[in-house]
Amino acid sequence: MQKRRYLDNAATTPPDPKVIEAMTSCLAENWGNPSSAHQFGHDAKMALETARKEIAALAHCEADEVYFTSGGTEADNWALQGVLSLQPDSKRHIVISSFEHHAVIDQARQLEKLGAAVTQVPVSASGFVDASAVNQAITSQTCMVSVMHVNNELGTIQPIGEIGRLCQTRGVLFHTDAVQSFGKLDFRFNELSVQLASISAHKIYGPKGIGALLIKRGTRLGARSFGGSQERGQRTGTENMPGIVGFGEAAKLCRVLREEEGARIRGLRDQCETRLLEAIPDLIVNGKGGNRADAILSLRVPGCDGEELMIALDMRGLCVSTGAACSAGARGASHVLTALGLSVKDARSSLRISFGRFSTMEDVDALCETLPTIVKQQRENSIATVT
Q: Of residues 143, 272, 326, 368, which has the active-site annotation?
């Protein structure tokens, strides 16, 4: 049977066996409702707060700044909705970058329909947001800025420290989507001028369906839901205990493994990038030349269709993507790549390869042996079709 090799860790990561063990134990033994006053409830509450502390330790924040959500998308939505819901008519302007995750962009568009004003700041051709452009976009009516920490398709690391400081100077709240950086970079919420940050468990070898919004103490935010006292009345409803326990275990593991793991993953990415650049003529690395996260490699293959390359690789047991999983099946090109100034044709010629804890050099070897052959065949077929 053909071995399947997973190189799409930016979409989701396989749960760590220790996470699965912790979640299974929670389901089997600690299934009480943490809001109950009896011993079962007390045990569940202890497990919930232990997980919250583990996540806070990884994020370098206080435990009471962690508010659980169903994932990064809900956290992004809540950040924008929650800020805007408390603003007067004179402060209903939001600034975002043009290559934010759809959870931010689509929420901003929905808020526009409800009367908010939204400015999208352009990004550079290499995939970076210029803090000065954010500063120019802020007006007297701006209530918040939202710029992601690591772009989910390119891996480019945005200058959120600089952006946060200028937002603080201008008296504007700053939110960052830290889903691709939390647990991978040294993300220090308590040292940044960031009031809101979105994080997710399934990007750090935890379960899907659980994430959190970090809300700095003293930040006013409209509640996400009503009907109980959970999450200090901000996001009510019975907690997803197995998910929360799994998230806490994943965060605990990341604290121990992050630095060593990052160096190994960076080595895999660099080996893969170097070998593919040597083997495939005219190959282009999207986002190269700037500060990039270790795990993501975005490649543009002129003369090829990225989706066809992805399918051909999948048939050979190699799992990569063309971009964000949330956009899979969407028509047109990646908004991230067109934001760089690429044509639709060029944007559609890209692949995203992303590495993780369980990636191996054998995975890199298999990709570097297979992809050049597929590219050569596709380019030859394209020329034959034209002639």
A: 326
